[in-house]
């Protein structure tokens, strides 16, 4: 993991966008696995300054809450439409998404597994860090999941957004698995936001364990970790 210290959020966002622009100049139709949350918002805004560069970009949604409908203002779907798909003018034909309604969860997981098997690996995977060390919805646990799956969410993950903590229990999400992430040709890992000091310290120990799924990024040969320090 190549750790890049940034002065502030603006620098982190600009550097991350520059990495994407460099990659897309080589492969315009690259497959881009998109995280949501506060960490990549600035990066996506930087990318949106050069929409012409993304005329062939293919986007796949990384994760989604199962406890709210896709049309909810706090869904990952709504976020991606607002911050990535509309600003970059990505049509539905170049966007792979999934539903998370309880009765569809299993079939949607299977659909995504088949899509990734046929179209993967991701050329670029954007990751944020959860306060508990998670990446996507791969939460700390005794074991981790390799493929796209339905995940039970940790309390700290649900509390990340007050609107989400009002949903029925147990709360779940759908997300890419650890193998999907670690097979990516390039990973851009954004470490930004309050309350992540413990998780970041744990990563810096360079000890790989399922108590901190983000620690597995040490196994990946092409990860740029941008951190505000
Ligand atoms: O719960 C989550 O949080 C992380 C980090 O979110 P951020 O708002 O601090 O950037 C996010 O990357 C992840 O996809 C999501 O599951």
Automatic annotation (TrEMBL):
What molecular function does GO assign, one term? Answer: 6-phosphogluconolactonase activity
Question: Does Transmembrane show up as a keyword for this record?
Answer: no
| UniProt xrefs under InterPro entries | Glc/Gal-6P_isomerase, Glucosamine6P_isomerase, NagB/RpiA_transferase-like
Ranges where the Glucosamine/galactosamine-6-phosphate isomerase domain occurs:
12-217
Is Hydrolase found in the keyword set? Answer: yes
Tell me which UniProt keywords the record has, alphabetically: Hydrolase
Question: What's the Enzyme Commission number for this chain?
Answer: 3.1.1.31
Name listed for the protein in its UniProt record: 6-phosphogluconolactonase
Q: Report the source organism.
A: Mariniradius sediminis
